[in-house]
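Technical annex, item 7. During the second reporting period the consortium partners agreed on a shared format for inverse folding records so that results from different sites could be compared directly. Each record opens with the tokenized structure and is followed by the designed sequence. A conforming record, contributed by the partner at site C, is shown below for reference.
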């Protein structure tokens, strides 16, 4: 059995890890930790969002000496041609120094959400107010609302983790 440390307490992200492990029949214990991302509270680029995921994955390995793997996930936004897109990144670090990163789909944010983020607010707070909901980021996420429930935050991160797990398996063969 391996021990997988996950750098989050967010239920949507933890469910993505659990789904990936169950789907791949990995014999693992999952431990979750509240670790810093080392980036701004609202990452504003793919680079910053990806770095947040990497920092969380590495922080878990530093915090838990028994963890075989560290997993980090980070949500953020990125600009393209003057429009703001939702972006999500994941990272996996191991004790051998291996680091694997993968990103998820991007969707255009409505102008009202983009304006709120550009004003310095976190997307989760803007989405809560805009959609009249509470803690959107811990459930279906902004992506869940904007896709009418067709893709949830858990599913988004699950897809990213499947990419990472597949790449990890390929590299370990």
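Designed sequence (site C submission):
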């Amino acid at each position: 059995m391996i021990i997988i440390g996950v750098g989050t307490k967010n239920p949507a992200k933890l469910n993505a890890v659990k789904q990936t492990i169950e789907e791949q029949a990995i014999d693992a214990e999952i431990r979750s930790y509240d670790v810093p991302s080392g980036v701004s509270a609202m990452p504003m680029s793919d680079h910053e969002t990806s770095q947040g995921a990497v920092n969380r994955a590495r922080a878990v390995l530093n915090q838990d000496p028994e963890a075989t793997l560290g997993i980090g996930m980070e949500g953020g936004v990125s600009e393209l041609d003057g429009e703001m897109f939702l972006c999500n990144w994941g990272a996996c670090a191991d004790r051998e120094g291996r680091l694997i990163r993968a990103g998820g789909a991007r969707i255009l944010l409505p102008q009202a959400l983009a304006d709120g983020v550009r004003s310095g607010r976190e997307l989760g707070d803007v989405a809560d107010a805009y959609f009249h909901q509470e803690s959107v980021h811990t459930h279906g996420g902004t992506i869940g609302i904007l896709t009418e429930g067709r893709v949830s935050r858990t599913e988004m991160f699950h897809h990213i983790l499947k990419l990472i797990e597949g790449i990890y398996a390929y590299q370990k063969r």
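The chain has one domain: 2-172. The longest strand covers residues 69-80. All partners now use this format for quarterly exchanges.
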